[in-house]
User: Which sequence fits this backbone?
Protein backbone atom coordinates (compact mmCIF):
# COMPACT_ATOMS: atom_id res chain seq x y z
CA UNK A 1 0.00 0.00 0.00
CA UNK A 2 2.84 2.37 0.81
CA UNK A 3 4.58 1.71 -2.51
CA UNK A 4 1.31 2.19 -4.40
CA UNK A 5 0.72 5.40 -2.45
CA UNK A 6 4.13 6.78 -3.45
CA UNK A 7 3.47 5.98 -7.12
CA UNK A 8 -0.01 7.50 -6.96
CA UNK A 9 1.17 10.61 -5.10
CA UNK A 10 4.05 11.15 -7.52
CA UNK A 11 1.81 10.72 -10.54
CA UNK A 12 -0.82 13.10 -9.18
CA UNK A 13 1.87 15.62 -8.26
CA UNK A 14 3.29 15.85 -11.79
CA UNK A 15 -0.20 15.98 -13.32
CA UNK A 16 -1.21 18.85 -11.04
CA UNK A 17 2.12 20.60 -11.56
CA UNK A 18 1.49 20.85 -15.28
CA UNK A 19 3.76 20.43 -18.28
CA UNK A 20 7.49 20.38 -17.52
CA UNK A 21 9.38 21.86 -20.48
CA UNK A 22 13.00 21.23 -21.33
CA UNK A 23 15.03 23.83 -19.36
CA UNK A 24 16.50 26.62 -21.44
CA UNK A 25 20.20 26.19 -21.92
CA UNK A 26 20.01 22.46 -21.13
CA UNK A 27 22.52 21.65 -23.89
CA UNK A 28 25.07 24.25 -22.73
CA UNK A 29 27.55 22.25 -20.69
CA UNK A 30 30.47 23.79 -18.86
CA UNK A 31 33.26 21.86 -20.59
CA UNK A 32 33.01 22.29 -24.36
CA UNK A 33 36.67 21.68 -25.16
CA UNK A 34 37.51 19.50 -28.12
CA UNK A 35 40.53 17.22 -28.48
CA UNK A 36 41.72 14.95 -31.29
CA UNK A 37 38.90 16.19 -33.48
CA UNK A 38 36.23 15.15 -30.95
CA UNK A 39 33.98 18.02 -29.80
CA UNK A 40 33.05 18.14 -26.11
CA UNK A 41 35.79 15.57 -25.62
CA UNK A 42 35.53 14.87 -21.89
CA UNK A 43 31.74 14.67 -21.85
CA UNK A 44 31.98 12.14 -24.69
CA UNK A 45 34.79 9.89 -23.48
CA UNK A 46 33.62 9.90 -19.85
CA UNK A 47 30.88 7.55 -21.06
CA UNK A 48 33.41 4.77 -21.69
CA UNK A 49 33.04 3.41 -18.12
CA UNK A 50 29.38 2.66 -18.92
CA UNK A 51 30.54 0.54 -21.85
CA UNK A 52 33.11 -1.31 -19.72
CA UNK A 53 30.72 -2.04 -16.84
CA UNK A 54 27.79 -2.94 -19.07
CA UNK A 55 29.85 -5.36 -21.15
CA UNK A 56 31.41 -6.89 -18.03
CA UNK A 57 28.01 -7.52 -16.47
CA UNK A 58 26.48 -8.87 -19.66
CA UNK A 59 29.40 -11.21 -20.40
CA UNK A 60 29.58 -12.46 -16.80
CA UNK A 61 25.88 -13.34 -16.81
CA UNK A 62 26.22 -15.14 -20.13
CA UNK A 63 29.41 -17.06 -19.43
CA UNK A 64 29.85 -17.57 -15.67
CA UNK A 65 27.77 -18.74 -12.72
CA UNK A 66 25.88 -15.84 -11.16
CA UNK A 67 24.85 -16.91 -7.65
CA UNK A 68 23.50 -13.44 -6.91
CA UNK A 69 20.89 -13.50 -9.69
CA UNK A 70 17.60 -15.30 -9.17
CA UNK A 71 16.81 -17.34 -12.31
CA UNK A 72 13.53 -15.54 -12.97
CA UNK A 73 15.34 -12.19 -12.91
CA UNK A 74 18.15 -13.03 -15.33
CA UNK A 75 16.34 -11.23 -18.21
CA UNK A 76 16.03 -8.11 -16.04
CA UNK A 77 19.74 -8.18 -15.20
CA UNK A 78 20.69 -8.74 -18.84
CA UNK A 79 18.39 -5.88 -19.83
CA UNK A 80 19.98 -3.61 -17.24
CA UNK A 81 23.49 -4.31 -18.48
CA UNK A 82 22.40 -3.97 -22.11
CA UNK A 83 20.86 -0.62 -21.23
CA UNK A 84 24.14 0.40 -19.58
CA UNK A 85 26.07 -0.44 -22.76
CA UNK A 86 23.58 1.57 -24.80
CA UNK A 87 23.95 4.50 -22.42
CA UNK A 88 27.62 4.68 -23.39
CA UNK A 89 26.76 4.96 -27.08
CA UNK A 90 23.65 7.09 -26.66
CA UNK A 91 25.19 9.60 -24.27
CA UNK A 92 28.41 9.71 -26.26
CA UNK A 93 26.44 10.40 -29.44
CA UNK A 94 24.42 13.13 -27.71
CA UNK A 95 27.47 14.93 -26.37
CA UNK A 96 29.12 15.02 -29.77
CA UNK A 97 26.39 17.44 -30.88
CA UNK A 98 23.93 18.23 -28.09
CA UNK A 99 20.38 18.83 -29.31
CA UNK A 100 16.87 17.61 -28.58
CA UNK A 101 17.12 15.16 -31.48
CA UNK A 102 20.33 13.54 -30.20
CA UNK A 103 19.07 13.71 -26.60
CA UNK A 104 16.48 11.07 -27.46
CA UNK A 105 19.29 8.54 -27.84
CA UNK A 106 20.76 9.60 -24.51
CA UNK A 107 17.54 9.30 -22.53
CA UNK A 108 16.13 6.14 -24.12
CA UNK A 109 18.90 3.81 -22.85
CA UNK A 110 18.64 5.40 -19.41
CA UNK A 111 14.94 4.52 -19.22
CA UNK A 112 15.86 0.91 -20.06
CA UNK A 113 18.33 0.81 -17.16
CA UNK A 114 15.96 2.58 -14.73
CA UNK A 115 13.03 0.29 -15.48
CA UNK A 116 15.11 -2.89 -15.42
CA UNK A 117 16.60 -1.86 -12.07
CA UNK A 118 13.13 -1.33 -10.60
CA UNK A 119 12.02 -4.76 -11.85
CA UNK A 120 15.12 -6.29 -10.22
CA UNK A 121 14.39 -4.63 -6.89
CA UNK A 122 10.76 -5.72 -6.90
CA UNK A 123 11.79 -9.25 -7.87
CA UNK A 124 14.38 -9.58 -5.13
CA UNK A 125 12.34 -7.97 -2.35
CA UNK A 126 8.72 -8.87 -3.15
CA UNK A 127 8.75 -11.84 -5.51
CA UNK A 128 10.89 -13.00 -8.47
CA UNK A 129 7.87 -13.85 -10.61
CA UNK A 130 6.35 -10.42 -10.01
CA UNK A 131 9.56 -8.63 -10.97
CA UNK A 132 9.91 -10.76 -14.10
CA UNK A 133 6.32 -10.06 -15.19
CA UNK A 134 6.74 -6.31 -14.66
CA UNK A 135 9.89 -5.98 -16.78
CA UNK A 136 8.21 -5.59 -20.17
CA UNK A 137 5.43 -3.24 -18.94
CA UNK A 138 8.07 -1.11 -17.22
CA UNK A 139 10.15 -0.93 -20.41
CA UNK A 140 7.03 0.06 -22.34
CA UNK A 141 6.38 2.88 -19.87
CA UNK A 142 9.97 4.07 -20.29
CA UNK A 143 9.64 4.08 -24.08
CA UNK A 144 6.34 5.96 -23.82
CA UNK A 145 7.96 8.67 -21.70
CA UNK A 146 10.50 9.41 -24.44
CA UNK A 147 7.99 9.25 -27.30
CA UNK A 148 5.58 11.53 -25.43
CA UNK A 149 8.30 14.10 -24.75
CA UNK A 150 9.40 14.23 -28.39
CA UNK A 151 5.86 14.44 -29.75
CA UNK A 152 4.99 17.28 -27.39
CA UNK A 153 8.30 19.01 -28.21
CA UNK A 154 7.46 18.93 -31.90
CA UNK A 155 4.16 20.66 -31.20
CA UNK A 156 5.26 23.08 -28.48
CA UNK A 157 7.84 23.31 -25.71
CA UNK A 158 7.71 19.64 -24.79
CA UNK A 159 6.51 17.90 -21.64
CA UNK A 160 8.92 15.90 -19.50
CA UNK A 161 6.42 14.75 -16.87
CA UNK A 162 6.39 11.03 -17.81
CA UNK A 163 10.18 11.01 -18.11
CA UNK A 164 10.53 12.67 -14.69
CA UNK A 165 8.42 9.87 -13.21
CA UNK A 166 10.45 7.19 -15.01
CA UNK A 167 13.74 8.63 -13.75
CA UNK A 168 12.86 9.53 -10.18
CA UNK A 169 10.10 7.13 -9.06
CA UNK A 170 12.45 4.10 -9.11
CA UNK A 171 14.87 6.04 -6.91
CA UNK A 172 12.06 6.94 -4.49
CA UNK A 173 10.72 3.40 -4.39
CA UNK A 174 14.12 1.73 -4.11
CA UNK A 175 14.89 2.79 -0.50
CA UNK A 176 11.39 1.71 0.57
CA UNK A 177 11.85 -1.70 -1.04
CA UNK A 178 15.25 -2.12 0.59
CA UNK A 179 14.07 -1.02 4.03
CA UNK A 180 10.60 -2.57 4.24
CA UNK A 181 10.97 -5.91 2.46
CA UNK A 182 13.63 -8.53 3.26
CA UNK A 183 15.82 -9.41 0.32
CA UNK A 184 15.87 -12.92 -1.09
CA UNK A 185 19.64 -12.52 -1.34
CA UNK A 186 22.56 -11.71 0.93
CA UNK A 187 24.55 -8.46 1.00
CA UNK A 188 21.74 -5.97 0.26
CA UNK A 189 24.24 -3.19 0.92
CA UNK A 190 25.44 -3.61 -2.67
CA UNK A 191 22.13 -2.26 -3.94
CA UNK A 192 22.41 0.67 -1.57
CA UNK A 193 25.69 1.39 -3.35
CA UNK A 194 23.79 1.85 -6.61
CA UNK A 195 21.46 4.40 -4.99
CA UNK A 196 24.23 6.33 -3.22
CA UNK A 197 26.26 6.58 -6.42
CA UNK A 198 23.19 7.78 -8.32
CA UNK A 199 22.59 10.46 -5.70
CA UNK A 200 26.16 11.72 -5.94
CA UNK A 201 25.95 11.65 -9.74
CA UNK A 202 22.89 13.92 -9.67
CA UNK A 203 24.69 16.34 -7.33
CA UNK A 204 27.69 16.52 -9.65
CA UNK A 205 25.36 17.03 -12.62
CA UNK A 206 23.80 20.06 -10.91
CA UNK A 207 27.26 21.43 -10.03
CA UNK A 208 28.57 21.10 -13.59
CA UNK A 209 29.70 24.73 -13.94
CA UNK A 210 31.02 25.34 -10.37
CA UNK A 211 33.12 22.16 -10.44
CA UNK A 212 34.57 23.05 -13.84
CA UNK A 213 35.46 26.54 -12.66
CA UNK A 214 37.07 25.20 -9.49
CA UNK A 215 38.88 22.13 -10.88
CA UNK A 216 39.47 23.45 -14.42
CA UNK A 217 40.50 20.04 -15.71
CA UNK A 218 37.11 18.33 -15.68
CA UNK A 219 33.47 19.31 -15.27
CA UNK A 220 30.74 18.12 -12.96
CA UNK A 221 28.90 16.52 -15.86
CA UNK A 222 31.88 14.41 -16.88
CA UNK A 223 32.32 13.31 -13.27
CA UNK A 224 28.61 12.50 -13.16
CA UNK A 225 29.14 9.94 -15.94
CA UNK A 226 32.03 8.31 -14.11
CA UNK A 227 30.22 8.16 -10.75
CA UNK A 228 27.02 6.80 -12.30
CA UNK A 229 29.00 4.11 -14.14
CA UNK A 230 30.72 3.19 -10.89
CA UNK A 231 27.25 2.81 -9.37
CA UNK A 232 26.23 0.30 -12.03
CA UNK A 233 29.29 -1.76 -11.10
CA UNK A 234 27.62 -2.56 -7.78
CA UNK A 235 25.14 -4.67 -9.76
CA UNK A 236 28.04 -6.62 -11.29
CA UNK A 237 29.23 -7.31 -7.74
CA UNK A 238 25.68 -8.16 -6.69
CA UNK A 239 25.42 -10.74 -9.47
CA UNK A 240 28.68 -12.46 -8.54
CA UNK A 241 29.15 -12.03 -4.78
CA UNK A 242 25.73 -12.63 -3.28
CA UNK A 243 23.86 -15.82 -2.52
CA UNK A 244 20.31 -16.91 -1.71
CA UNK A 245 19.42 -16.55 1.96
CA UNK A 246 19.21 -20.01 3.48
CA UNK A 247 16.04 -19.19 5.43
CA UNK A 248 14.01 -18.48 2.30
CA UNK A 249 15.75 -20.57 -0.32
CA UNK A 250 12.95 -23.16 -0.29
CA UNK A 251 10.33 -20.52 -1.13
CA UNK A 252 12.32 -19.40 -4.17
Assistant:
Amino acid sequence: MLLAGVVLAGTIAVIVYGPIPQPEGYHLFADQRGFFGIPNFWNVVSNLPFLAVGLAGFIILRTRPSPGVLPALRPAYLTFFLGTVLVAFGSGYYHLAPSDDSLVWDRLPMTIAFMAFLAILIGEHIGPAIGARLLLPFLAVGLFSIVYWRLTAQHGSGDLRPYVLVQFLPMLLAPLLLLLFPSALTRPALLWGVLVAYGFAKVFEELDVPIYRFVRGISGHSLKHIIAAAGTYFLVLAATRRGVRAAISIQI
Notes: The longest helix spans residues 128-154.
